[in-house]
Specification:
The structure holds 2 protein chains of 2 kinds. Chain A is of the alpha+beta class. Classes of the chains: A alpha+beta, B alpha+beta.
Amino acid sequence: MRPRRVASGALLAAWSGLALVSALVPALVPAAAEARTADRPVQKVLANGLEVVVFEDPRLPVVSCRLVVRAGSAHEAPAQAGLAALTARALLLGTDTTDAVGLRRALEAAGAEMSASASYDYSLATLSAPGGHAPRYLALFGQVVSRPAFPEAEWGALRARAADEARQAGLDPRRAADRHLAALLFGSAAYGRPIEGDAISISALLAGDARRFHEAFWLPNNAILAVAGDVRAAEVLPLVERAFGGWRRGTVGPRAPVPPAPGQSAVRVLDAPDVARVSLRLGVEGPGRSDPDQLAAAALHVLFGGRRRDSRVSRALAERGAGEVEVATNWSFEARAGGLVLAAEAPPERVRAVVDAYREAVSELGRAPVSSQEMELARRVLLGAALIAQEPPAERAERWLLAKVYGQGEDYMSTYADRVRALEPADLQRVARRYLSSDSLAVVAVGPREALQSQLADLGPPRVLPLGARSGAVPAVAIPLPASPTRDTPEARERGRAVVVSALEAHGGLAALERAASWRASGTLSIGLEERQSIGPYAEVFAWPDRWRLEMVIDGSPVARTLDGETGWSASAGSVSHLEPETVAGLQLTRYGLPIVLLRQLGSPSARLLSVGRETRDGRPVDVVDWLREDGGYTRVYFDATSHLLAAAEQLERAQEGGAPIQVLRLYDDERPVEGIVHPFTTVLYARHVRASEHRMESLEIGVPVGEATFRPPAR
Amino acid sequence: VSALAAAGLAGGPAACASLEDVLRAERSVLENGLVVITLTDPGAPVASFQVWYRGGPRLDPPDHTGLAHLFEHLLSGPAAGGGPSPSEAVAEAGGGSGAYTTWDALVFTSTVPADALELCVRLEAERMSAPPLDAKNLARERARLGAERAAQAAAQPLNPGLEALIGLVFPGHPYAWPLFGREGDLDSLTPADLADYARSRLVPDRATVVMASSLSHRDAVALVGRHFGALPRSGAALPEPPPAGEQTHARGVVAQASTGVPVLLVGYRGAPASSPDQRALEIAQHILSEGSSSRLSRRLVEKDRAALLVGGSSQERFEAGLVSLYAYARPGVPEAGIESGIFTEVAQLAGAGPSPEELVAAQEYLEAKYLYRLQTAEGRAQAVAQASVLLGDAAGAALRPAAWRAVTAADVRRVASTYFAPERRNAVWLRPTSAGGTR
């Protein structure tokens, strides 16, 4: 076990949520107070437009670099949420001369560290290296930021990891609350979308997208490089020239258009029946980094909420006896806007007390203005935080760079302390009047909806979504569709059969598949688009060839649907109904989306298979086969050309609501061996080009006995 | 530093200060036994003040394991009388603070603007002299510990394996106890028990304070003396735990965890922190399991494709360190391949030692990571405190990089063959709690 660190204030230690609130803007205190060394860096602009600044600090033999690119998630298309962040992460997948493993090993060889990330308004790459190895690592850093390879194979794995992280974030009550609050405050504008994107938007990002983003924004004439630590400018600048001089300048892409923010109060409840404590967020929009009121807003935050027991909000809460509530505020600042967020973890019955405490604290600022003691406290906290934050030379350099990127001026750091000391209570009162209003309060609560709806009803009609639902800030993604079936030729048939034979082997062999006479699976099913979403458990039982029972929970209500040969039934809300013949036919077709069923059908000697050829799908080569079914339709099946595993299947299916058939695409992923069969554990379904559902299987038992009663309808 | 000069990046007036200058520690002992160590950095705008209560869980009473960690929580809460906690007071002065428990110490840290240093000293003296140990605080913090333990179990699925591993490596010794204590050990505690514990452990003669600031040693000692000088020493010696017996045969267990895939953890008892062997063991562990260049990664992840991920750590402890290695099995691959892969690589290192390139890379890696930590006053104070408490000499902080560089290939081979001998091997297989079709 490693030593456990406790951050300042027990509350902060307990909250991952606050870290995310901070992620709205990474630096509460953006600049230095009174730095001891090298406040005036040596500056130079290379011929390609790259601005370079050097901060000499010889106390330790360490050299650090910070490269800031003036483009972040605000520069990506809304449907490509997460592109800036994934592009940055993908820099470390290698360059045109070094692959990812080679890069890692080169860094490990002398303990150097490299990272890359994106924020809303900028992207950042960092390097730390022992001073003696600086020339070598500066050269490598130059390669990484200017000549990334974005290799297709590694891109897929990175994207899958990022999508999984985003999915987990959506299910974490605190992080979900932060995401939905951002969406309420800023709508689908950049600051409303998660920087890292959401699982759906990330899943659609291609390596080519990253390449284009890099070509448009990661340009020397759109970047500033700081070198800090044990260097002398005269000696390190030629090394920088050598490492970055060949980086070609270009035309910088545009910032994405900014839709108007909602700017009105709204209440959202994320239903999580089982949580013991509600994650509550209250937020208002605030000034951006370049707003003259930004510093006063930061000071106001310290005494209004902050993380202190004696803050205005904490006192108001104490008067209401809300002893079991943990509360803190954070005021974050981006280039064009910011947000004051109050974050609380409270027992469900105490949520209203927090809202009332916030309103009372706002109201009290009118009756009892900021005192001189409070003002002095705010000054002390701001100055101290800035001093400590910029202690390492690299941190000081980064803050200098960001002040420049945000347009705050090169003297921002050196004048910071004077400006903090010049703040007066009247400045804070002005900011309070301008921003802290209950009229445009956004509220998000994650917890049992029954308890929350009644407490929040008078703030506005709450919109109730399940925990895990998308925030609505990221638009849906369209998926391209295939053309009509290919020509029936002997070559196409032979090649189609060969592709399927390889696939059957990769999945464990036809014999193993044919032994799978029945199976049970369970996991999580998410259904729906932005406006209607449901995430809940599902369970299914299948008996070859056409008996299939699927149970799921939609919007909190259990639903069951069963196919039993040529008949079927469904049950929900206590009522049972037999399925219409059209619906039964639809289910017959839908079961071909089950991997074992599909593979067994393809493995049948009588199956008519035609090779369509090899394509690149989602950045990886796939072999495509059309299966011409006996019912006259066809299913287009995609197999990974390297692993031969089932990658996707596409066919026309019957819409539940009737009408014209719809094109349905299923993507398979996360293969795991079960009883000798390699089976995908994730299936993502796109209907009419739009992502409609995702099955994440958590357990699969093959060959288990299934009783007859399983497929019988329950008593009415 | 010498490598730096060779690269021509530094020299002349702007040349890097030597590590001995940056970590030049001075030491005094107050009459009540309090050890005061200072690092003077004239003009430094930020100061760090740390109190290390020596012993920590290692000297916890066997019937109340987990007490040191409980004290970390109790002493981090509101002050006696209901005033603001030390961390709140430090935050209002523009600083930050923290607390943690290692196997050998209970530690409180504060980092503040230089002009708030005295506040930190006063708060720590108050924490030592008047700890808030009433029944209400005990009940609250015990409940929080339970919640923290549950949260850690959920967030760190390797924890059950690590707890099982230290049980195998250090049987019968406090190092085998979980940081949270054994199940039920804290349930019967009363405020009187806490007061007894505080009287024997929360005392000047069991503490080392470290100050990294602009103050001279003399001024710093005077400042500490003003606030701590009147506190009485305990004088009572605490019983040392019996040493863990020599291991004569390999040990292994199987445990359940929510790791998703099977995980193998392997552990070896290392050397005392003050032994030169500890530095060689750190290099051996690095060569075996640190990063994609490591031997286990090359073999198990790349060549055999038996593991998804490998890693390890080398923990420095007062009496004997812990070297651990782990591998996450690739689904569908026989577990025997993981075991044999790890033990083969360990045996090869013990037999042939490291290559010259491996040795240099490990030395430079460890030194670099160490130097990064020293860029803040808090990091420098921690390095010096750690050297003082674990090595018995604060000067050891500055000498650490040199100690790594002094390790030879023969040293690595010797420690690997001695400490990683087959009969000293301990293994824990973690099996996923939900099968999920993974095996």
